[in-house]
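Hey forum,

I'm writing up a methods section and want to include a predicted complex as supplementary material. The small molecule is flavin-adenine dinucleotide. I've pasted the protein sequence and the SMILES. Can someone with a working setup run it? I'll credit the forum in the acknowledgements.
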Amino acid sequence: MYRDKSIQRISSDIDWDLVVIGGGAMGLGCAMESAQRGYKTLLLEANDFASGTSSRSSKMIHGGLRYLRQLDIAMVRQSLKERGHLLRHASNWVKEQRIIIPLYKRQELVTYSIGLFFYDLLAGRDNCQSSKLLNLQEIKDSLPGLATEGIKGGVEYSDGLFDDARLAIGLAHASSAMGATVANYMPVDSLMKTKSKSGQDKLIGVIATDKETATSYEIKAKKIINAAGTFTDTIINLDQPQESHKQVISQGSHIVLPAEVFPATKGMLIPQTEDGRLMFCLPWHGRILMGTTDIQMQKASWQPKPQQDEIDFILENSQSYFQHKLQKGDILSSFAGQRALISGSVSSKELSRTHKIIRSSSGLISVLGGKWTTYRCAAVDAVNQAWGKDTNKSHQSILNDFSQGALEDDSSQFIHPNLPYRIKQIERAVKHEMVVNLEDLLARRTRALFLDAKAAVACADDVARIMAQIMGKDSQWISSELSSFQESVKQYLPQ
Ligand SMILES: Cc1cc2nc3c(=O)[nH]c(=O)nc-3n(C[C@H](O)[C@H](O)[C@H](O)COP(=O)(O)OP(=O)(O)OC[C@H]3O[C@@H](n4cnc5c(N)ncnc54)[C@H](O)[C@@H]3O)c2cc1C
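Reply by user p_vandermeer:
Happy to help. Structure tokens for the complex are below, copy them as they are.
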């Protein structure tokens, strides 16, 4: 995957079958599906791949117990099927994770056992290890950091755990291997239209600017898919300025903690906190990931940041469940993601996470809503809108041909004693994974910023020098990268 080759193709090939706007889960899924069907496909991402919501998720590939509670059976079944597919075909990224739900009322032991029995049943042949009831001692053994007062027992079940940004990079690689052209730092600024014979507006392409060189390109395409996530309405308004907003934006934040505060290999889920929210603790890359919140926002942000009261909410709620009394000083990193939910009259906690594909009178196909777990379903639906249903069912998933990012037999130095990344891995990412700046490398090719923001700052200078050497950049570039990185880090460090 080489950015200069993509730019070369964009400047020489002016006619495309499909342009996809947005390089998150949905856009990358569309590019992969379209390229697999043999269409000449171009994906344009405004910033880095997955720099939007798709690197800021809760890292679960899940059927969704919440949807089961809401009796959204179709959604649970579809998600469980996708979970099975990803565990098989993206096993470099997605692993089965056992999760325990501690329960405080005897009655809940019955309800959750029945609920999880159906969860397993709905998965059918895609099921993981079966769910089971646990007694208090078994919970203590599995979750040594848990405050066990009042616990009557619990249930244990499986879902998938993944590295979202790395799966996105895997999808970008796979789409390129299938023949798609993908480019990051290439925002679509406007849409090109012509009048049809009947006098109606018809989309014929996009105008996009390469942020690296400030060069604009007129790109013609037969079909255009808008997969701009929380900015989907912005693109819809480029097409139809009067159109009302189709999505509402909600924000969820997470904190990352050292493994010692909750030393468990199994995850924990609190399905309902006192104010009815879902809370979880998951072991992720040797740390503990904890979240999440759900607050409605006025508008989408390119760089969402956890709000003070979101962090306080997570810390306060943890007090009832952890033996270790968590404090702000324990937090290694925090991050926020924003969801685009399909508009409705209920609160964001209740809005559906399903996707919807709409098509405007001029032909713009927009992907609304959705979740990572079911990105493939949204992509197939969007590409079907463009080209009709696919009759060739023989597509092979080639995701597993691409690695997680780490190299086998790599004994090079770690970039920092607290981070699991080595110098050779960094060099490979810079050479082959379309890294443009320091944040791409430390937030999404590695997850350093998400795992330990201070450690990421500490090694930034060394990493920038390695990058500069490979990319042929000078000392001025290094200084400018370091200063913009210092700004980005503020998103991840709780104040
Ligand atoms: C807090 C939180 C936790 C979540 N946890 C889970 C989970 O555990 N499991 C799960 O399955 N799902 C989860 N989700 C949902 C999942 O993360 C999202 O559904 C998914 O990432 C959305 O992908 P997307 O491609 O639509 O959006 P994005 O990832 O935001 O991608 C859209 C892209 O479009 C680009 N873009 C915008 N405008 C332009 C333009 N003009 N030109 C070019 N590009 C443009 C943006 O830069 C962005 O990269 C979670 C969501 C949130 C907010």
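Some notes you might quote in the supplement: The longest helix spans residues 453-471. The chain has a mean pLDDT of 92.
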